[in-house]
Amino acid sequence: MCRLYTMHANEPTRVECSLVKSQNALMAQSEGDMAGYSHGHGWGVADYDDGQPLIEKQTWAAFHGEHFAKKAARVYARTVVAHVRRATVGGTSIENTHPFHHGKWIFAHNGTVPEFDQVRPLILEHTDPLHRVEIAGTTDSEHVFRYLMSLFLHHPERGLKETVRAGLEQVIAWSAQIAPDRPVGLNIVLTDGHHVIGSRYNRSLHYLVREHIYDCPICGKPHVHHKHETDYRAVEIASEPVTPDEIWYEVPNKTIYTVAEDYRLDMEPLGR
Q1: What kind and span of H or E run contains 102?
Q2: What long-range pairs does 87-90 form, CB within 8 A, spacing at least 24?
Q3: Exposed site from 33, 119, 259, 268, fewest CB < 10 Å?
Q4: How far apart are CA 22 and CA 20, in angstroms?
Q5: Which pairing describes strands 255-259 and 249-250: parallel, antiparallel, or unpaired?
Q6: What's the confidence (pLDDT) of residue 272?
Q7: How far is CA 155 from CA 61, 120, 131, 180, in A?
């Protein structure tokens, strides 16, 4: 189990309130989520600067010390991915800490592939050697990421969404084959800063759409330096609603989604 957060907007946006200051900010979830679980085995925050990913990761809890809060206060970007980890597969290390990245691609995962020691050889068998040698840790998450990147490398003609769908459904099938009585958890987010695709599969996931500039109910200020010739649009996606006083919608279980041009979610069923 882990908790993740994604923001994607048409203008650079601050996310400090969602990550640190709100009642159920990601930092608060790292200490205790709505189910009472802590997620103290590391944290990571990724954003983009001039198209290049900037990633900071640490192996301690987000609520310990000031590092997470200071990183969150510096983030001002169109696309952000943040993650707090509760380790289920792989020990506590930087190599096992999310988000993972390859080139411009950033990836985070909430969930578990059951009996991963038996599923892992199947994933590696279908992972391109160029990606296989880049696997630095021991998590199911990083292996799934590299497998999806391999599929996209081999089949760019499918398009991103169908490639990710095919990969996730194959992991689901392998998991059902190896551990039929243990459901796989596959909430993922994958982005290159322009495209955002993700899934909800047997873990909680919610989203919030913003269609105009607003004064944040937490800090009382807008989170953007708005360009008046544009209409501000943004979407926030999180394992749990981070601002309880706003309307968050639940992503249906077993869903694959993409962020559309209007910054709403295009959702389709995932799985067989």
Answers
A1: strand 100-102
A2: 87/41, 87/42, 88/1, 88/112, 89/113, 89/116, 89/138, 89/139, 89/140, 89/141, 90/137, 90/138, 90/139, 90/140
A3: 268
A4: 6
A5: unpaired
A6: 63
A7: 38, 22, 15, 29
128, two tokens? 């391109």
66, 76 in Cβ contact below 8 A? no
- As a three-state string, the secondary structure of 171-235 is HHHHHHHHCCCCCCCCEEEEECCCCEEEEECCCCCEEEEECCCCCCCCCCCCCCCCCCCCCCCEE
Total residues belonging to the chain? 272
Q: Helix (H) and strand (E) counts for the chain?
A: 7, 13
Q: For the chain, what is the largest distance between any 2 Cα atoms, rounded to a whole number of angstroms?
A: 55
Query: How far is it, in rounded angstroms, from Cα 212 to Cα 235?
Result: 11
